[in-house]
Specification:
The complex is a heterotrimer of chains A (about 400), B (about 90) and C (about 190).
Chain A (H helix, E strand, L loop, with lengths): L1 E5 L1 H11 L4 E3 L7 H12 L6 E3 L4 H13 L4 E5 L1 H16 L5 E6 L13 H4 L7 E4 L3 H15 L8 E6 L8 E5 L2 H7 L24 H33 L7 E4 L6 E5 L4 H15 L3 E6 L1 E3 L3 H7 L5 E6 L9 H12 L6 E6 L8 H18 L6 E4 L5
Parallel strand pairs in A: 2-3, 2-4, 4-5, 5-7, 6-7, 10-11, 10-13, 13-14, 14-15
Antiparallel strand pairs in A: 1-8, 6-12, 9-11
Chain B lengths: L27 E5 L9 H5 L5 E3 L7 E3 L9 H5 L5 E5 L3
Antiparallel strand pairs in B: 1-4, 2-3
Chain C lengths: L5 E9 L4 H14 L3 E7 L8 E9 L14 E4 L4 H4 L11 E5 L11 E5 L1 H7 L3 E2 L2 E2 L2 H11 L4 H12 L1 H17 L1 E3 L1
Parallel strand pairs in C: 1-4, 4-5, 5-6
Antiparallel strand pairs in C: 1-3, 2-3, 6-9, 7-8
Helix pairs in contact in C: 1-4, 1-5, 3-4, 4-5, 4-6, 5-6
The chains are: A alpha/beta (about 400), B alpha+beta (about 90), C alpha/beta (about 190).
Chain lengths: ~400, ~90, ~190
Amino acid sequence: MAVKPLTGNYAAAWAARRARVKVVAAFPITPQTTIVEKLAQFIERGELDAKIIRVESEHSALAAVYGAAAGGARAFTATGSHGLMYMHEMLWWVAGSRVPLVMAVAMRTLGPPWNIWTDHSDAMDQRDTGWLIMFAEHNQEVFDELIKMFKVTEDEKVYLPGIVNLDAFILSHTTEPVDIPDQEVIDSFLPPRKQPYVMKAGNGLTMGNIPKDLRENMEMREDIFRAQERAKRVIEEVDEEWYRLTGRRYGGLIECYRCEDADHYIAGVGAWVGDMREAVDRLRSENGLRVGLLKIRYFRPFPREEISKWLSNAKSLIVFDRSVSPGSAGPLFLDVVTHTTLAGLRLPIKNVLAGLTGLDVTYEDIENVVLKSVGEVEESGTFRNFIEWHYGGEA
Amino acid sequence: MSDEVKQVLPLAKPMEGVSGKTGTWRVTKPVFHNDKCVKCRLCWLYCPESVIEIVDREDAFITINYDYCKGCGICSDVCPTKAIDLVPEGE
Amino acid sequence: MLNKGLTEIRFHGRGGQGAVTAANILVVAAYKAGLWGTAFPHFGAERRGAPVTAFARISKRRVRVRSMIRHPDVIVVLDPALPKLVNVFEGLRDDGRVVINSPKRPDFRGPWMTCYVDASKIALDYGLVMAGWPLVNTAILGALAKAIDFPMKHVTEGIQEYIGGVSGRKNAAAAEKGFSEVVCVE
């Protein structure tokens, strides 16, 4: 075990190294590039026995590692922003063919205008592809969850690819101490790769032919849906196993921070959950507001039972989204509202759209939003508006 | 209602210094000496920032716009008669 | 200064001067001193020579805040010309510190304590030059350690671990020099 000061990107590269990936392919894009640069350095120094396939685009990058993974290799890629958009078609192919594969996404604003700062729109746009989608809060979680993601995706109950998302710069280029367990520890945790089938020479096999029977085709889609449901238990079990090995556990799909006695709740994904923790502590100590924080770790599969369980006695909920579906609302908000409603909960839920395009959000901003909005609920039983664009400063 | 519509568009017009005063990036400054200049225009041709202007005055053949000159030194490098010195900024 | 919960530091330099590296080394040193830290750059026009900022947070527990630093406790200025070009003092707390690379006492005044050291000369004395520029970031780290009562031993170790080899030793020596030569005035 060794604690190293690492950026989020280097933590991701270390995870791929410790998972002993055999094939890496990626196309450079800010803020992802240093992940693959670091992996290239590991390989060059003989510290990682893997091949890097040089490609001309992100679409080809995922196609290359997809082929390698279908052929039986543990494979890894990374991208973000427009690179992920360009890759999008291949995400469907990988998930649809049920090939386990792991990717890190350094989340960045989509243009126009050109912008390199964090925003969750690129990650949220992969919602329906069938990939497991996880959002990390800090660099230790980037490393831990990537390692765990290999195990989850290669579980026969799942056999789906997975993404670990890390925010541009505030994780990808931020240096902080990260514990990197020794190789033997990871080897004892990660079994040899399993997958539903292996494409190899001499073994006549095609994948993805036009189906004779569309009913069967729809069943394939339902099977992905069911695999996502099954993945929930696997994610929790793997989290517990990781805890026994490293002493670090994250709560599986979701963590509820200071929720035991909470009246009002806030929810979010990604790095700014750290700022939300600070806001919750301060709202409790300085304003006497009992606020709890739902840190939603997995967006797919969506932790609907867990969220509804925590909110069963809640007076209100504010969902912070760092992306939006124009013409509707924030994607996290939409899922939360859908599943709490289906669970029979009737509490006021508000969507705060903040930090889009990388606009800086401080814990004071979060405190201000909560103070104002919770004040409305305490006064009238509901929020004055349910979708609010917040630019920071005084609410 | 229609007169309240105001679009926010990702547009910019060509103009001088859209990145701000890039002259602040300079750590060395090109200084021109007219007496050595042979009017070959190489500095004007090679300047990547187009901050050299041919003015063809009695006292100076060129001027350098220090608001935007980043101090890269290419002008000094290409000058065949060493008519442009590079001096540390602030001296 | 490190006794309060969280110390927030903003580095001002020029692209290529090593402000980001200085912030990173500080996190390495902090961990050796039993403290947690984060270091992050502010990417704007990240170009050689352009004014850039980098940030570091040092704390007794894991740093969880990710937003920009708006009210730094300390500003570190790697280039003496920068205060004339950008407002390096923006948001600086009244009880804060200014650590600046300057051969003489700077002429700006404020409620904070000002610590100055001729980091350019130290860098040149130790042969720390890259592409024609003195590498002042390690000398100024030594000065910073003095200014905020940060254990110098760990700064030296952090520099040697981060840079390594002969260059690491030279940089560590420059930091020691910065630590011993810095002058702080109210």
